[in-house]
């Protein structure tokens, strides 16, 4: 196994993008529980996200969701973020909250609605240009609830045509990232249900199209790390939406439900060259904190990713490959498990302190008084964008 000192350079490269929507009130379709101090504007969401970066050094960018984070001047919003020590990151399109999209967006059989969805994507690309963002992330709620409701093939064909129109608008340094999800809100057939469908569309589009893997978007029991390996092998893993789940798309804190799965995923990321600032693979969170406080929820999340990344980096890949080659089943497995069971929290605390960060970011943030301050300052905080 590698030593902690061996992995600190790699750890220093870690960057995890935060979703603006994690800071707003959110809930299930049964209830949204409001919390004091919740942001009322995109600026306040960015200010909260900046706190996570200030205390952890792990979260230098914030993803926006349009139109939830609609403002008049995006360059000004980017400057606001910069003043707070962060940058704006991925622009997430939203074609799922408009009555027009009841039967689909980029797949819609009605040309007017399909063009409206394409125009929204183009607007998102313009926002990216204003904010200096690299990635347009597309997740579609498109699908059908009943067999026969829609022509599955026709929907794929329209999707391909729509995506090509969106792709054509990308600048040279911009990327399209297509996220998949196996069900919900459509319950019979989802139009981008799996990595293979996303991959097929990306390959047809061109070299600036990549797959986004949301860890909560698979059937129970799916071997997600295998998908990671395959997409890295194919050069099409663009980004992660990290979260954890017990049942379906639960959007719980990453690493909370199954830390071992997170470790296995991160090991494959490291193994496959998907780790680090030049890898082209963006780490993002996609979570909602329905009952726990939001900024601490995000602090816990990025620390969970950091801890599991450290454990994955501890694996001596050469040693492991040698054990695998020798057919040493138990030895190889033990090499992985030894790294997984290594408690890195003490080393990480010491390392953080040595870099001018709080050894215990959660404790220092809670003691900072920021939560009391925003509770007093912000009255009438709104929900993240859905679940009212
Ligand atoms: C869909 C999803 C997608 C959306 C986000 C709010 O379930 O994961 O990434 O943009 O949730
Ligand atoms: Mn997602
Ligand atoms: Mn999701």
From TrEMBL:
GO biological process: L-lyxose metabolic process; rhamnose catabolic process
Ranges in coiled-coil conformation: none
UniProt cross-references to Pfam families, sorted A to Z: AP_endonuc_2
A molecular function (GO) term: metal ion binding
Record domain Xylose isomerase-like TIM barrel: where: 53-224
Protein name: L-rhamnose isomerase/sugar isomerase
Enzyme Commission number: 5.3.1.-, 5.3.1.14
InterPro entries xrefs: L-rhamnose_isomerase, Rhamnose_iso-rel, Xyl_isomerase-like_sf, Xyl_isomerase-like_TIM-brl
Enzyme class (EC, first level): isomerase
Alphabetically ordered keywords of this record: Isomerase, Manganese, Metal-binding
Domain of life: Bacteria
């Amino acid at each position: 196994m590698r030593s902690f000192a061996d992995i600190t350079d790699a750890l220093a490269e870690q960057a995890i993008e935060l979703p603006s929507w994690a800071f707003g009130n959110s809930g299930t379709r049964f209830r949204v529980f409001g919390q004091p101090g919740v942001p009322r504007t995109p600026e306040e969401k960015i200010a909260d996200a900046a706190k996570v970066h200030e205390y952890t050094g792990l979260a230098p960018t914030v993803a926006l969701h349009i139109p939830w984070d609609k403002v008049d001047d995006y360059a000004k919003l980017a400057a606001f973020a910069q003043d707070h020590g962060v940058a704006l990151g991925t622009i997430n399109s939203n074609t799922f909250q408009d009555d027009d999209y009841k039967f689909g967006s980029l797949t819609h059989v009605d040309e007017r609605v399909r063009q409206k969805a394409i125009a929204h994507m183009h607007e998102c690309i313009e926002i990216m240009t204003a904010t200096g963002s690299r990635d347009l992330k597309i997740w579609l709620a498109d699908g059908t609830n009943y067999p026969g409701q829609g022509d599955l093939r026709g929907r794929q064909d329209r999707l391909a045509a729509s995506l090509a129109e969106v792709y054509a608008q990308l600048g040279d340094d911009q990327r399209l990232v297509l996220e998949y999800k196996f069900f919900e809100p459509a319950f019979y057939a989802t139009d981008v249900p799996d990595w293979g469908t996303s991959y097929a569309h990306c390959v047809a589009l061109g070299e600036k199209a990549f797959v986004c893997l949301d860890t909560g978007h698979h059937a129970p029991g799916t071997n997600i790390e295998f998908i990671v390996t395959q997409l890295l092998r194919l050069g099409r893993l663009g980004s992660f939406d990290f979260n954890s789940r017990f049942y379906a798309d639960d959007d719980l804190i990453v690493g909370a439900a199954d830390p071992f799965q997170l470790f296995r995923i991160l090991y494959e990321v490291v193994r496959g060259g998907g780790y680090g600032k030049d890898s082209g693979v963006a780490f993002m969170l996609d979570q909602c904190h329905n009952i726990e406080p939001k900024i601490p929820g995000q602090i816990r999340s990025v620390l969970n990713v950091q801890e599991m990344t450290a454990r994955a980096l501890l694996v001596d890949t050469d040693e492991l490959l040698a054990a695998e080659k020798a057919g040493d089943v138990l030895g190889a497995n033990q090499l992985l498990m030894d790294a997984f069971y290594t408690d890195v929290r003490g080393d990480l605390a010491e390392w953080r302190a040595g870099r001018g960060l709080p050894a215990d970011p959660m404790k220092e943030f809670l003691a900072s008084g920021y939560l009391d301050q925003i509770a007093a300052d912000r009255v009438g905080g709104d929900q993240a964008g859905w679940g009212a």
